[in-house]
Amino acid sequence: MAVISYRQALHDTLRAELARDEVVFLIGEEIGVFEGSYKITAGLLAEFGPERVRDTPISEEGFVGAAIGAAMLGLRPVVEIMTLNFSLLAINQIVNHAAKMHAMFGGQVSVPMVIRTPGGGGQQLAATHSQNIEVWYAHVPGLKVVAPSTPADAKALLAAAIRDDDPVIVLENLALYNTKGEVPDGEQVAEIGRAAVIKPGRDLTVVAYSRASVIALDVARQLEADGVSVEVIDLRSLRPLDRDTTCASVRKTSRAVVLEDDWLSYGVGAEIAATIQEGAFDFLDAPVRRVAAAEVPLPYAKPLERAALPDAGALAKVIREVLDATRFAR
Amino acid sequence: MAGKARAAKPGAAGHAPSGGEPPEVLRGYYRQMALVRAFELRAAQMYTQARIGGYCHLNLGEEATVVGLMAALESRDYLFTTYREHGYALARGLDPGRVMAELFGKATGVSGGWGGSMHLFDAEARLLGGYGIVGGQIPPATGAALALAYRGEPGPDAEAVMCLLGDGTTNIGAFHESLNLAALWRLPIVYVIINNRLGMGTPVERAAAEPDLYKRGCSYRIPGERVDGDDVLAVRDAAREALRRARAERQPGLLEAVSYRLRGHSVVDPAAYRSGAETGRLRALDPVPAFRARLLEAGVLDEEAALRIEEEADQQVTAAVTYADDSPDPTPDQLFAHAYASPVPNTPRQLPGDPVVSGQ
User: Fold this and answer.
1) ipTM of this model?
2) Domains of chain A
3) What angle do CA B282, B80, B34 make, to 5 degrees?
4) Structural domain containing residue B56
């Protein structure tokens, strides 16, 4: 077991999958000669050549759609969209086509395509380059959306996505690329559609995904010192959504908070809260709270950006409020 | 490479009627045109009787283009079409009964009743879909050509892709992005603009700043050619040559086939934007009677043989309606049958009103 970065885990998995299966190829802007905007594909052009690491012009709808067509004929394209924001240029192909084809054509064709793309704010990239619009895709039947929060999951979920016969969006996160963690050696393929309890606890459940899971884990560890036992659930898959793991946890802890980087309204937190009230209503001691981004286009100036994004302080405060409201005593 | 326009004479002119063509080939084309005509007239009728739902776009007036293009396309090639596609499916060899069954939303339809008129699909016939979103098929068709280039070598026997699109579609971004990619990457694909002069009700001249649509490939050094879409042989020959270059030279092509839509945009459109005089003029240009007259004149058909072909087409369509009528509806227990190609845990299978989580 090696300790490597999230970026390295993605890179190594792409390399291993390219070597494993010749129908796998990479396609996207600046992934070859430039080695990727975030260097995930560094060295792969030299190793696998321009057919398998295919640079594209700036044509998101064109090259995402081309990946769909290549997948229809049995190739396994792994598309890099430079950031999640740019996926909006291709959303017609993703939502109206990739997501529909298997069902709409009566099961005669599948689209084994992966779209890797980083979301997330906090880098002073301002409003158009800082969005978390993964929930738009998580809303759509026919797509799968996974969101690894650790290097180990980056490896295992990306490998699963590449081997899956459906279009899978692998949500990466700019703030996670340099984070490090233990990654098991050898082939690791996760099961898409399962959440994980990444820290067991008794008193309160925090549900999160992607960067928010890392924050939630930090906060939970700090609260441990105060005698508060927080269970942290990393959703890992936004579609399909593993509701049972969340409900089972809340039936045990009776309290729940959702942390997400996205805007609050209509978000993952809303879906989780609705799930909990249906699946664990009788066990709840307090309303489910959501900690999410302020509902503004994310500003550039650091104090404004910081104020808009949820952080460990906001999560800890809300956890404390829920505990106090339920007369929690350690 | 500005491309060229073949003499696009309207009506029955064009190639000499029998110029070296085996008579049985010409009769075969007429048989297919007659079948498409009969099928589409019956589809319109079935639509007005509410046997067909949703949208329904007909190939009436486009029969020569349909049959010419499909004659050029080899069985090893792949076809992506628009939502105006019944005729292409028939000329590609799909069973008329299964096409009609799809329009009727039956389980035996070519897409199992999931797609309807706009989304016909047959993996075996390499008809990779009708597409209901204007131009949605162009990037995937380009990607299918990328897959062919990824796997195979160019040559006279190589596979190629034909991607159909309407005249209005040449104004969308995906058209231009895709042509650029196809030319950059030298992909074996022929884009065919089916120019019926109207994008719904908007004439080409009001929608395209370069209304000679075949010239729009020149930004990408893709040679363009315009053919008389009412001339089945001209269409076939131009498509064959474009496909040859795509196969052998990996040279993508752009073909514009000009014909006239004889009816409204869809079955429910009365085409009130057309004058009575224009409607009359279009009838005179109708490619089906025109081709019939050519074949009679050339002695390839006599009146009796022509009538027999038309009766057979009618009988085929009647049999298709009977087959569709007799076919079972898809059943609700199949609603999630195609949720995913790779099954995964926690896939939603709730019907409206079902609980989202199992009991507490």
Assistant:
1) 0.96
2) 2-183 (3.40.50.970), 196-325 (3.40.50.920)
3) 40
4) 52-204+232-265
